[in-house]
Amino acid sequence: MKAGIGYSRRRDGGEAGREAARQACAQVGKPALAFLFTTEEYDQAAVLSQVLEDTRGARLVGACGAGIVTPEGVLREGVGVLALAGEVEAATALVSFAPEEPEATGRRLGEALLSASSAPEGTVIVFPDGLAGNIAGMLRGLYDVAGPDFKCVGGGTGDNLRFMATCQMTEAGVASNAVAAALIAGCSFGLGVGHGWKPVGSPLIITRARDRVIYELDERPATAVYAQRVGDLDVERFPEYGMRHPLGIADASGRFIIRDPLLARPDGSIQLMTEVPSRAVAYLMQYEREELLGVTQEVAAAAKGQVRKPRFALAFHCVSRSLLLGYGVGERIIREALGESVPFLGLLTFGEVAPYDDAPLFHNKTLVVAVGGE
Amino acid sequence: METSFAELAALYEIASLDFPGSEKGLFREVVEKASRLFGVRRVILLLHAGVGGRACLTWGCSRLGVDDYRAYVEQNRSLPEAYVRELGNGVDLGLLYLEKKGGFSPREVRLLDIFSRRLAEVLQAHYLQDRVRRANERFKVVVENSPMVAVLGLDHRGKLAQWNREAEELFGIVKASWGFKDLLRQVVPRDRFKEALREVLRTGRASPPGEWMLQNRAGVRRWVLMSIVPVYEGAGQGGVFFMAVDITARKEAEERLRYLSVRDALTGLYNRNYFEEVMQRLDAEGQRPVSVITFDVDGLKLVNDCLGHAEGDRLLRHVAAVAGKCFRDEDLVARIGGDEFAVILPGAGYANAARACARLVEAVEARGKRGPGLPVAVSAGVGTAQAVEESVYEAFKRADDGMYREKLRNTNRVAGRILGFCMAALQEKDFLATGHAERLAALGEQLGRAVGLAGDELDRLALLARVHDIGKVGVPAHILFKPGPLTKEERDEMKRHVELGYRLARSFPELAPVADLILQHHEWWNGQGYPRGLKGEEINLLSRILAIVEAYDAMTSDRPYRKALPHKAAIAELQRCAGTQFDPRLVGVFVRLMRRNG
Question: Among A191, B248, B455, B466, which one is most buried in terms of CB atoms within 10 A?
């Protein structure tokens, strides 16, 4: 198995795509699968078209994000391509995301992938629209079809924090409000997932929530309770508070999945970046920079440690986590943890996909690293 | 995070598991919690008594290629990765199977046991609710389509909660805002209904079925048999059900029966039974004074006999109607026999009763004075029970005795009035033959004398000539004055005047001597006449004479449908019918008499 990466800061989409694809292909020859990561400024169709031309018929899965994670740091504008060649078998699928039927969306995606592949096991790299509702439900639908023999990993597609529109891609084309995925067989993956956030204070009961909105915490209007917990809350600057004080929902083992408060709604409720379970226990979370940095290193090392011969890595880093650390800081730690020999490429994401055990979960403010190899 | 806190958080989530509206939705919740909280990789939920029957819900199992998940569970039950629990405490609700790579820790198993029990509770509650819901739906369907029973449910605020089609029809429910005030507005009597409702709410027990009247805005009244049933659903909650059956038809039938049992069918006045019942009641109550007036229609038998019972009945109804207007509301007017009436006047002394009696007699007789109808009069008597020691019955007897005395005094007067009426009516009805009777009398006298009659016989013949058609007062005018030929039925009706005349004549002493003659004046010499088919000299001579002179006068007089025949033609016709219709000897005498008279 060979892996090659390329990235470009060229402003023209076609040129950037050509440059990134040619760099990647130069390292592997004719690829079997290409990952394409872009930022929102480009004509995505032009980028895709050029990359497909230069990857010469390879399967492709791609996504737009808030930045491209490269060994050199974060590209706030750019195009990145990771090409895989060798005994890698890949199938891709691009399905529209039906917001009222997330499980059904996941099932359709799983059925499309499995019908295009005969692999008995593998890894699904999945890029749901990060602005879509109930991605966790979609992942449960996907898992219901794929089962534990297929690991799911990926990230929510995003934009430059304008929260307007994102895009998802396969060789079939560019879409929005969709989910793109590639099923990869013939390649071992090691997965690392972690965030480094710690709970603070007493628990909060999510007494009423639906999809991405928490209406009540502790049976009171959610914003009022949240404001009480974080201190003097300036509603105008709510996203900033949300970025620094997310909510953490614990599992039975004490592990947390993080949820990003996004804005305070006029009715006193809080809209989050991602859906949240109702009648659950949440904690206000806080971070220490050193902890986050330490977890970054641990996640990358853990992923690498699961693969005998690491050949490449994919990193899906929450955009707000990257922001808190400073663009490029966490990415440098990833590079150091993976080592110079492991080329990697990644995306600053709106939510991250990775399992703690078998079934995929949807995280916020988390780093997911997938190391591929033999 | 400390595991104890994580455990508490998981416990909260587990305990808050609730039914989201469907079994599939519940399974989604189970999968969400099991995968997020415990990291399970497969979930199988076998439901043995699901709403839709047995069901198998799975997650993460698509690629297992398993058809029989029960067998799969049994096969894997003992593996460390598996967690299997039968659901239901004493009730076989189903089975929960969870699978996790590496298996579950004892702490996780303990939490999952709680989770399983909560799941079973939720399912059991759901099934129970579903059974209740289905029972309610069945009940609702039955109630809503109940063909005779109106069901109306009001909540504790008096607002409409449940009702069926019968209730819509019976109570006039036209909109959902209909409520207690609308019900109260139409129930009669309202105060008693409110009291009954208060009692039901106070005791918490259903009222026995009671009869109530409903009167809608248009004034339409209906009777219902209604029960009031309280429904208690906690303090300040619940409501009241009204279950009613429309019994209007039954009540009307009862009312009709009751009416018939105390009323006289012909006149609508109270009947003798009720009259006596009231007398007894007044005696028992000891109320005094009580007066009784009895009165009897004079000449009713005569009218019945001569003019028929229909005319007699009309007379009775008229008298009843007049009497009904002559007394106070509290007085009781009854028909106690064929032509006997009685009035009970509670609280009235003799003087007042006598004045009331006089008013009655005057009002009845006023009818005869005002129009050309049959003269009507009553004989009346008054009795009063002044003291408690005197029974009302005794007062009645005195009134009755007085009435009979009065009746004896009135008998001749009444007969004279009726005869006068009949004669006037005969003259009025027989206008076609104005002068007919006088001519007959003259001709009859001539013929009578010619055959040797004299004295009383000639007087009887003259009377017969005048009243022989008196029975025509009972023949309907449309037959009597019909311009064309009569039908057979009409002819038969017309023939009745002979017998009617006979009966009338027998009823009046003045006419009794000619009653038999009237009866025979349409008999034929050959026995083909009517009513008895007498022949020859079985027919009284005077009647045979009248037959000839009447036929001659009729033929020689104009009629609306024909001109008068010439004398010769009339004589020829008499001669033609001699020996058949007429006595041939008398015809011969009459012809010679006519010739001699020129």
Answer: A191
Sign for the pseudo-dihedral over CA of B540, B543, B547, B553: positive
Nearest residue on chain A to B105, alpha-carbon basis: A253
What value of ipTM does the predicted structure carry? 0.94
pLDDT digits (tens, 9 = 90+) for B482-527: 877 889 999 898 898 899 889 888 888 888 899 999 999 999 999 9
Tell the burial category of B18 from Cβ atoms under 10 Å away from its Cβ (0-12, 13-18, 19+). Answer: middle
- Rounded to a whole number of angstroms, the distance from the CA of A120 to the nearest CA of chain B is 9
A266 touches chain B (CB under 8 A): no
Distance from CA of B128 to the nearest CA of A (A): 24
Q: Residue A181 forms beta bridges with which residues?
A: A93, A126
Q: Touching check for B35 and chain A: CB below 8 Å?
A: yes
pTM as predicted: 0.63
Cβ(B144)–Cβ(B232) under 8 Å?
Answer: no
| Cβ within 8 Å, pair A357-B39 | yes
Residues of B in contact with A148 (CB under 8 A): 41-42, 60, 101
Which one is predicted more confidently, B418 or A41?
A: A41
Cα–Cα distance for residue pair B323/B308, rounded to 1 Å: 23
Place of tokens 């009845």: B364
CA–CA separation, A9 vs A19, rounded Å? 9
Phi, then psi, of A275 in degrees rounded to 5: -60, 155
Give the span between the Cα atoms of B196 and B181, in whole angstroms. 16
Query: How far is B187 from B368, CA to CA, in rounded Å?
Result: 49
Give the integer Cα–Cα distance in Å for B323 and B343: 9
Selected residue with higher pLDDT from A18 and B567: A18
| B310: number of Cβ within 10 Å | 11
> Which of B16, B32, B63 has the CB atom closest to A140's CB atom?
B32
For B239-257, the pLDDT digits (tens) are 899 999 999 999 999 888 8
| A180-196 b/e (C-beta count within 10 Å ≥ 16 → b) | bbbbbbebbbbbbbbbb
For chain B, the C-alpha Rg in angstroms (whole number) is: 49
Closest CA to A146 of A187, A188, A115: A115
Question: What are the tens digits of pLDDT across the range B320-335?
Answer: 999 989 999 999 999 9
Give the β-pairing of A89-96 and B290-297.
unpaired
- Shortest alpha-carbon distance between residue B187 and chain A (Å): 48
Q: What is the pLDDT of residues B170-219, one digit of tens each?
A: 998 888 789 999 999 999 999 999 999 999 989 989 999 999 999 988 88
| Burial state string for B241-274 with b = 16 or more CB within 10 A and e = fewer than 16 | bbbbbbbeeebeeeeeeeeeebbbeebebbbeeb
- Assess whether pLDDT exceeds 80 at residue B562: no
E strand segments, B358-468: 378-385
CB-nearest to B1 from A140, A148, A199 is A199
**Tokens 């790299």, residue?**
A125
Q: Report the distance separating Cα B350 and Cα B347, nearest Å.
A: 10
Q: What is the overall mean pLDDT for chain B?
A: 88
b/e code A351-360 from CB counts within 10 Å (16+ = b)? bbbbbbbbbb
